[in-house]
């Protein structure tokens, strides 16, 4: 299975690179074009400079290690959580060499019946490829129309930028693995339930009760729960 997983991961990287601004002048759903060979990220939290991305490392100090992350996507992650899924991201936060390149990748592990709950990536479209198991994937457009497919190993599914989408392991007792490529160095992630019911400070329960047409007691119960983030 490891060889097949790596093949799918390589395909995702190729698709992401093909849609990046550095390889196509017509790609619009990605980060801005780079104005230099590279811009390896450094920790700019102590600098009095704010940029759309990360502060660049001095090019004379850049090494091959800035573009390399060893075996991060090989090892299965622990899925013993309330969702039964865990995300292993490779964004600019984990790989500084991705800064300003407009691409990122990730691995998602699913326990049997595990779910990647409805969420959005506000900064990028997503390409999903199944490496092992069977997943039900879908997204909802701005007219509330559902687009969904059952994915088997080797199948690919595309999610347009910013739309709510999900993944669900429907392979019975089998685990599942998927790889995702994004057209951004930092696609962002907003889980619908978490953002609504775990906002800090909390959204007025009366507002949510009216918006979702639910009893206020149900809203209070939802807001009192601990909402798990699969990427953390």
Automatic annotation (TrEMBL):
- Kindly provide the name given to this protein in its UniProt entry: Germin-like protein
Q: Which GO terms describe its cellular component?
A: apoplast
Q: Which organism is it from?
A: Cuscuta campestris
Does this UniProt record's set of keywords contain Signal?
Answer: yes
Q: Which domain of life is it from?
A: Eukaryota
Q: Which UniProt keywords apply?
A: Apoplast, Disulfide bond, Manganese, Metal-binding, Secreted, Signal
Binding-site residues for oxalate, renumbered to this chain: 121, 126
InterPro entries, alphabetized: Cupin_1, Germin, Germin_Mn-BS, RmlC-like_jellyroll, RmlC_Cupin_sf
**Keyword Signal: yes or no?**
yes
Task: Report the residue ranges that make up the Cupin type-1 domain in this protein.
Answer: 71-220
An annotated Gene Ontology molecular function: manganese ion binding
């Amino acid at each position: 299975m490891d060889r097949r997983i790596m093949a799918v991961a390589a395909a995702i990287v190729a698709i992401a690179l093909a849609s990046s601004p550095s390889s196509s002048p017509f790609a619009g759903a990605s980060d801005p074009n780079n104005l230099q060979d590279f811009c390896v990220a450094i920790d700019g939290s102590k600098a009095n400079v704010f940029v759309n991305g990360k502060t660049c490392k001095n090019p004379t100090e850049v090494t091959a290690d800035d573009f390399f992350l060893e075996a991060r996507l090989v090892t299965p992650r622990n899925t013993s959580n309330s969702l039964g899924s865990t995300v292993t991201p490779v964004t600019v936060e984990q790989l500084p060499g991705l800064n300003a390149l407009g691409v990122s990748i990730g691995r998602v592990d699913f326990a049997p019946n595990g779910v990647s709950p409805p969420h959005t990536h506000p900064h990028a479209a997503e390409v999903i490829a199944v490496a092992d198991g069977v997943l039900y994937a879908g997204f909802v457009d701005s007219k509330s129309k559902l687009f969904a497919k059952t994915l088997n190993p080797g199948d690919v599914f595309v999610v347009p930028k910013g739309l709510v989408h999900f993944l669900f392991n429907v392979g019975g007792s089998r685990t599942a693995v998927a790889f995702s490529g994004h057209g951004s160095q930092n696609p962002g992630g907003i889980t619908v339930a978490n953002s609504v019911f775990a906002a800090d400070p909390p959204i007025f329960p009366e507002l949510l009760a009216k918006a979702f047409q639910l009893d206020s007691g149900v809203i209070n119960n939802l807001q009192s729960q601990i909402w798990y983030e699969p990427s953390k």
